[in-house]
Every structure is written in structure tokens, then in C-alpha cells.
Known about the structure:
The chain is mainly alpha-helical. The protein has 3 helices and 2 strands; from the N terminus they run H-H-E-E-H.
Amino acid sequence: MELIFPLLTIGAPFVGSLLIILFGQEWGARSARVGIAALWCSALSALASFALVLSGGPIQFTLIGPPSGLFSYTLLIDRLASVMMVLISLVSLIIHVYSERYMAD
């Protein structure tokens, strides 16, 4: 359960970007809402990851390859990384909401 929140924090903006690239022409101005929804999801899951790290300690898991070796990719989320995830996702969300409202007229 603790792995879903960091992966959602990283993956939600990526999936939102893919959806905008694939369907942005059809959706028009509504495609900005897809990006904002993806960033809301990312910010909320970053806050959940932060709460998990504060209550239980660092989260570490291997994404690709064996747990140790030359071709392994391990993700470690400690207190500093979780604070940075919250900060970056919230600032990005604020910028997207502002720019969507600014470009509305």
C-alpha cells in the first residue's frame, strides 16, 4: 500500500501529459483541466507519501531489475525527498491553475 502513493505522485503528471498529447486537439481548451486533475492527484498522493514517511520511516523499492546489481533502479523516499515531492507538486499545481485562468480570456 505504501508504494502506490509515490508511484502515483510520479506517474499522474506523466499520464496526464500523454492524454493531452494524444487527445489535446480534440479536447481543445478543456485539455488544461486534464493537466490540472493530474496535478491534483499528484499533490494529494505526495501529501499521503509525506504522511507515510513521517509515521513509518523511509520508503525504498526497486523499480527495474534485481534488487542489487548493475541494472537496478531503486527509489528511496526519505523525509527530504517527501518534502520536495510535496513542494514541487503543489507549486506546479498552483502554476497550472493560475495559467489556466489567465489564458481563459
